[in-house]
Prior knowledge:
This protein has eleven helices and 14 strands.
Amino acid sequence: xxxxxxxxxxxxxxxxxxxxxxxxxxxxxxxxxxxxxxxxxxxxxxxxxxxxxxxxxxxxxxxxxxxxxxxxxxxxxxxxxxxxxxxxxxxxxxxxxxxxxxxxxxxxxxxxxxxxxxxxxxxxxxxxxxxxxxxxxxxxxxxxxxxxxxxxxxxxxxxxxxxxxxxxxxxxxxxxxxxxxxxxxxxxxxxxxxxxxxxxxxxxxxxxxxxxxxxxxxxxxxxxxxxxxxxxxxxxxxxxxxxxxxxxxxxxxxxxxxxxxxxxxxxxxxxxxxxxxxxxxxxxxxxxxxxxxxxxxxxxxxxxxxxxxxxxxxxxxxxxxxxxxxxxxxxxxxxxxxxxxxxxxxxxxxxxxxxxxxxxxxxxxxxxxxxxxxxxxxxxxxxxxxxxxxxxxxxxxxxxxxxxxx
Length: 406
């Protein structure tokens, strides 16, 4: 059952995404699980479109994820088919057959081989996908270049708002556009990306370079968020480059501005996912410094971000910094207890391994009651740092997930 209450952290307005040359969008209501709403997104891509992707590391990955990984070896794409309401995960050979039938039908629709068709599914795990509802809808689709908002809505499950981002970049004097959509609200601790995210650009970029850029930017965007510590079986992030902008594409081409713009788009989408965390009332930014490595800093920050005790304290506007100390200690990374420092909302609450003698909880009461919470920790053993993002844990999370299949 979908949550009908829009997150208080939802954006006040949504960006207007412009058409991308070589990209056409279509949506349909197939009734895979939901009634009275779109649940299918189909994207037609120009011939020669390059593709890059990263996926969940779950050992129970869905049939679509496995098929996408195989298709990615060809590095070209002509079509994308995405359904919501059913993840087609843990469905065995039946799930693989469903993906095969969908790819066959999409290949006929676009006049291409199945090796250039990508699919993704999101929703309930362990239920067979009624793929005939999807394949029957394909011949009747109406494609458009501008229905980005509707596309983002079609892939939602427990999301309370559509997630969109857009950026422009300059490649060798040519302006290129980047549009992205994503869905994700719960089961978010990606170790990859988020549940589903799709990015489109008219830039001309060799597939191997596009993959390198995506892998690096993903690591510091989607891989730095968590809602509940659970990694989805369906996590998929794909970037499609149609090459229609007309920029120079070569190994020597300077793609630094594109990389910066892609980072901005992915960071934007990642934060939108956290802000739409199931039942979320607050965005929490956690920075850990003084670590012996970036990996250690991130592990400690994620330990704090995934702690139910920390997250429930934040939900209650309780500055219980002792729970942060606990989360640092359980992370399994080096930390100097007697040099540990913690600040909340820019106010020092603990330093040198004990409570800050000048700390008065009244100083951060207003901050704890706000929508944006910041936590800074220095573990005192090195010079590396990392920032991750999470949300609070409210009773609404239980309400949403307790009724998800009803």
